Amino acid sequence: MNGYFPSVYASPVPTQYRMTLTVDAHSARHIRGIARRLLASWELEELTDTVQLALTELIANVVRHAPDRRCTLLLLRQTAGVRAEVTDGYGRLLPTPAALRPESENGRGLLLLDALVDDWGVTPAPEGGKTVWFEHGAPRTQDDIGAAGSQC
């Protein structure tokens, strides 16, 4: 009897999604739909608006700055939230929000990202380019806060 027997420990719902693509002005809409469906399957619908807006900003940066507009999108289910990464081949790192001048016409998206998500950053990619990532978790409920307080 030969055959494939899936592990009883395998999750029936994928815990990550990876896609490499060339983006254009309409790509963010499709990526928002993918994120919405993934978050629903992960039972994290409450994160949808924030994750979609943050992904839109990261994709817009690729469209605007990466010469070939190629990127890899990675969405990871975490214990209490999601991590998103967008990697492109454009080696120039993004300016930090603190380095922006008040009269700058660009760069406000990073301020928005900083205000929306729990954590974010830019990491140089080993093969050149960079990965811009963010993590956003489910809002803590009173039950979570009470459980954490009882462990102290």
What does this structure look like?
By secondary structure, the chain is α+β, with helices and mostly antiparallel strands. It contains four helices and five strands, in the order E-H-H-E-E-H-E-E-H. Strands 1-2-3-5-4 form a five-stranded antiparallel β-sheet, with helices on one face. It is globular, with a radius of gyration of 18 Å. The C terminus is likely disordered.
In brief:
The chain has 152 residues and is of the alpha+beta class.
Residue share in β-strands: 25-35%
What level of helicity do the residues show? Answer: 25-40%
Shape: globular
Largest beta sheet: what is the strand line-up?
1-2-3-5-4
The main sheet comes to: 5 strands, antiparallel
Instruction: Report the order of strands and helices.
Output: EHHEEHEEH
* Spatial extent as radius of gyration: 18 Å
Give start-end ranges of low-pLDDT stretches. 147-152
Mean pLDDT across the residues is 83
The count of DSSP E runs of length 2 or more, i.e. the number of strands, is 5
> What is the number of helical segments per DSSP (H or I, 4+ residues)?
4
Ends apart, CA distance between termini = 53 Å
Structural class comes to alpha+beta
